[in-house]
Amino acid sequence: MSGPGRSRMDSSQESRVDSVEGGITVPDAGPRRIPMTRPARWTAVCVALLGCFSLLGCAKKLHSEARLLQPGDSWTYKVSVTSRSLKNGNPVSQNFTRTATLLEAKLDGKDVLLMTWTEKSADRSFAFVRTGNRYLRQDQGTREIIILAERGEDNELVTLSKPIVHCFGRYERGKSQEYDLAFSNGATRTGSEVVVGNEVVECKLGKFDAWKVHESGSGKLKDGKPYTFEATLWVAPQFGVNLKEVVTHKIDNDLMVEATMILESTNVE
After folding, report:
1. Is the pLDDT of residue 260 over 90?
2. How many CB atoms lie within 10 A of CB 64?
């Protein structure tokens, strides 16, 4: 499932934006930050959804079984985002890094895994540091990775109407799932994903034969604004995460946001 809706865009003085997937609130960098344009704010919204190649050459073999995640696992992605209004306005592009680290935690008194992430941008016109958390459980038998809940910097715990598979335990062509979710903050998300085959993907870590997954769907933000999305994911199960994601969101029939995440480094071997 593609990585962490809602958004409130009233003025340049607004102090926070929210993610689409699950509606996690992501505050901005504070009063000293240069006010973002409207497309830039929507970019921040969709990248939290994000909430990670076809080349010739020697690629590392295709793995089918998901890795058993371990506390301390860490992954860093390069993120590139372009947003534009469908009615007016020029495209706005941003680049930043996203580092996710896995920790031990408890949720409702039960042992779970906590994936905490930090996004950083060094762009002077759009400098920020923001964080988020996602509560996960991995079935030790099937190795499926399940999303249980999320929490943003406002400390609001957003729960799902039912758990959803974030990563399959075993990948094969044709494997699929459908979901229809309601979040505790009022947001919704309905969609489906299917493994369509495999492709060789290249990143800083090398070339990998990865599973290619198509996902699409629709939903509404916490404030009721509708959105649709399409995503292509390239999954290397041996890393426990996606190698690459390309996600497009159309929000309120007005804004188009295209985001790409590519894995740059990891301590997972």
Report:
1. yes
2. 14
